[in-house]
Design brief:
The structure is a homodimer of 229-residue chains. In chain A, 67% of the residues lie in helices and 0% in strands. Chain A has 229 residues and is mainly alpha-helical. Chain A folds into two domains: 55 residues, Homeodomain-like (Arc Repressor Mutant, subunit A, Orthogonal Bundle); 165 residues, Tetracycline Repressor, domain 2 (Orthogonal Bundle). In chain A, helix 7 packs across helix 8. At the A-B interface, helix 1, helix 6, helix 7, helix 8 and helix 9 of A face helix 1, helix 6, helix 7, helix 8 and helix 9 of B.
Chain lengths: 229, 229
Amino acid sequence: MAQQERARKTKDAILEAAGAVFAERGYDGATVSDVYSRAGLTKGAFYFHFSSKKDLAEEVLSIQVDRQGYPILPRQVKLQELVDAGFVFAHRLMRDSMLQGSVNLSLESGAHQLDRKRPFVAWIDHNQRALTEANDHGELYSHVDTAEVAELMVSSFSGAQILSHILTGRQDLTTRVAALLAHLLPTIAVPAVLARLDIAADRGERVLAEAGVGTTALRPAPPGLTDTL
Amino acid sequence: MAQQERARKTKDAILEAAGAVFAERGYDGATVSDVYSRAGLTKGAFYFHFSSKKDLAEEVLSIQVDRQGYPILPRQVKLQELVDAGFVFAHRLMRDSMLQGSVNLSLESGAHQLDRKRPFVAWIDHNQRALTEANDHGELYSHVDTAEVAELMVSSFSGAQILSHILTGRQDLTTRVAALLAHLLPTIAVPAVLARLDIAADRGERVLAEAGVGTTALRPAPPGLTDTL
């Protein structure tokens, strides 16, 4: 058990270092030795957990999917849960280097053969489910095309992330997400729902605090967090 | 003059090839010899026009800025001009490999030291001017923060471009731009203006046809087009 625990810590240290290295140098610019050196590990320790740079990158990419949903508490207004998922993701993205590396990989269109669709499709599916639930609760206008909006939210969030990254090093990401929602939601949500939504920029931080997950826990996200929440 | 003309053609052939190579391999994955080989030129011809890969990439990046605005005809509803600029850019981006390479470079966050801010800032400035003019004509709600919307339009367009690229190889880009505008404009434009806007997905194609610029002229954009329009 102690050995399992140690192995998991080693693997997580590699993923953490990989996130930072991919974020800084991109997939093509990163080397396996960059990663294990930064993690303070040996080549042998690296290849015990990962077979190649591509294998490592696939796992870094999957972090966006596996850890995306936590910890969204149920709300009376279903659309608030969708808003919360976006703000929590934005809040984490401003702080978690592993997640930053993961997002960078999915945006990078170099020579690599990574499956970049997966994190986007996972988020589209997530939004589609949340919008359908909101629709079932009568929260959306009847003309809303939930599939279209699910994709529009993913694309617009991705764009906010990129512009925030390029212009301010992600410092204003949650402010951009708030502006996006303020312009997008009025064409989707009926007024009675709109008036009850909390779309302030610090929403993600408050949601995490309410769930008992502090910001410090996000540098980096602790191993197995998705299992325990 | 014939010599100048030939030099311009050579330079344009290099930029065209560079766009395609950067689009396929990213900045780090591309080499100078990839570029001049694809253009069917010699190393010497390349270095007559560009001092380095970075120099070349800077010029490819600047294509987004230098050629962005054409050919937007004046409209009675000023907001339509902003819409048209977006649709024309989207339409070109689906076809022009030089522009695709340029956009890829600005989205890629590898090890390179390129100035990725410039094309985004240029578009933000462009939108800000267009929104200010629309506002002066009474087309916008009084609560609209034009600076915020100018950036939101750039970020959301960028996101639409990325998702379209990843999911469909950019085949549905103009459809995504239409969906974005259908959800964004109702919170910005007063109803009388909104009702008169043309935001159909084929708007860019029609604007270009009206200006006498065919689609064939965009593979690649002919040299000096910005000067003559």
